[in-house]
Amino acid sequence: MRVPHEHDLTAGLGPSTGQRAQWQTLSLLLVEDDRADAMLVEELIADAAVDIQVVWARSMAHAERELSAARPDCVLLDLNLPDASGIDALDRIANRDATVPVVVLTGLNDEYFGATAVAAGAQDYLVKGRVDPEMLRRAMLYAIERKRAELIAADLHATQLRARENALLERGLLPSPLLLDSPGVDIVARYRPSREDALLCGDFYDVVQTADRVVHVLIGDVAGHGPNEAALGAALRIAFRALTLAGVHGGELMRQLDRVLRAERTGEGIFATVLSLAIPPQPAGSADGAHIQVIRAGHPGMLLHGGGTVHWLEPPAGPALGLNLGNWCQHEVELPVDHGLLLLTDGLFEGYSGHRRERLGEHGLLSLARSHAGLSGPAFVDALIDGAQQRAQSLGGLTDDIAVLRVERTPA
Transmembrane segments in this chain: where (predicted)? Predict the structure, then answer.
């Protein structure tokens, strides 16, 4: 029997019978200070039905150097080393590489420490003098698979935690209208990201009422459908709220939102379309309509819904945000009493309609809306979305983000 070399104890040893099991070659770091015990391990490996390449480390310091150089498939660790013993030895291996499986070796009188080591993180333990080749092979393979399962479970748990944290963060960024008591408006909002399991998307909206009881409404759409677009949409919505409460309105509001977009976007080609409204309060007992201030920055028009009719309104538009072409002007539209304005993003009408590959489009959406014109605000909004979804169902349904917001004045 040859004496083990301190660095490379055994290379590629297989079963002495010549019948080799169908396992890939494993690498083992044997951490054992006693040469006789190391030779016994070599004999066990030589008789085991698996190829094992062994590196022998006679101290913990030596083992730490080996772990820094390469990760073995398994560590066979003596718990009584000159420079480390007991759980401290196990901890030092874990501190060097927490992903490597460890099987500990104990003496006949120290079996209790083996069980303690397993409780502390080792995958298994073996008692010197009671180990045969099959036991060693099984212990190594079990340790490797158990550690792999532990790492997968830990990674899955971390992924689930991140998903929950992301969901909480996204939920906190979702819009919630900021209105005074008795605000004088009814709001119906629907929001549907296209990404599976997402709460936020590049479409966004907000409603803010200032101290003069004017209700400021924004709806927008960042080009794209990923998390970067969702983050940019949230940034624009928050900026709109802050600027509105600070008294910034009209064209200046658009210019500031344009600055925010250009500062926050991840690429030069990213832009956003937006539409904003400023809705004055309706005095109690008044039967008059209102003149609504509208600014469009490349965004689709809106639906005027009420009195059993629906009309498409499309005030003059300025350029989308982010194109460095900023010049946005306010325009007025009439909002009759008992009518609502329905703002939307293009995901509602860019889906297919029927079995032919034709888009629903704005005209198709208007026709669909008119077929539900007699419904009240919430029912009208839901029927419009459901109708667009049903028309696109045969070709995969609606695949774009959707934001829909209906605003109707009521007596304050």
Answer: none
pLDDT number for residue 15: 38
Instruction: Inform me whether the pLDDT recorded for 261 exceeds 50.
Output: yes
Residues 6+ apart with CB under 8 A from 313: 301, 302, 303, 304, 333, 341
Using pLDDT thresholds of 50, 70 and 90, give the confidence band for residue 2. very low
Domains assigned to the chain:
8-154 (3.40.50.2300), 174-409 (3.60.40.10)
CA distance 91 to 117: 10
| CB atoms inside a 10 Å sphere around CB 135 | 15
Q: Would you give the distance in Å from CA 193 to the centre of its chain?
A: 13
For a pLDDT cut of 70, what percent of the chain falls above it?
88
Q: Which residues contact 89 (CB under 8 A, 6 or more apart)?
A: 31, 60, 77, 78, 79, 81
Q: Which residues contact 216 (CB under 8 A, 6 or more apart)?
A: 207, 208, 209, 210, 240, 244, 249, 276, 277, 278, 279
Over the stretch 286-337, which tens digit does the pLDDT of each residue have?
A: 667 789 999 999 999 999 999 999 999 999 999 999 998 878 999 999 999 8
Residue 388's CB is within 10 A of a number of other CB atoms, namely 27
Distance CA 77, CA 327 (A): 73
pLDDT at 360 over 60: yes
Alpha-carbon distance of 127 to 124, in angstroms, equals 10
**pLDDT value of position 108:** 58
Cα distances (Å, whole numbers) of residue 127 to 37, 87, 185: 12, 16, 78
Residue 1 — pLDDT band, cuts 50, 70, 90? very low
Extract the tokens encoding 189.
């909002």
What is the DSSP pairing of strand 84-85 with strand 402-409? unpaired
H/E segment holding residue 192:
strand 185-192
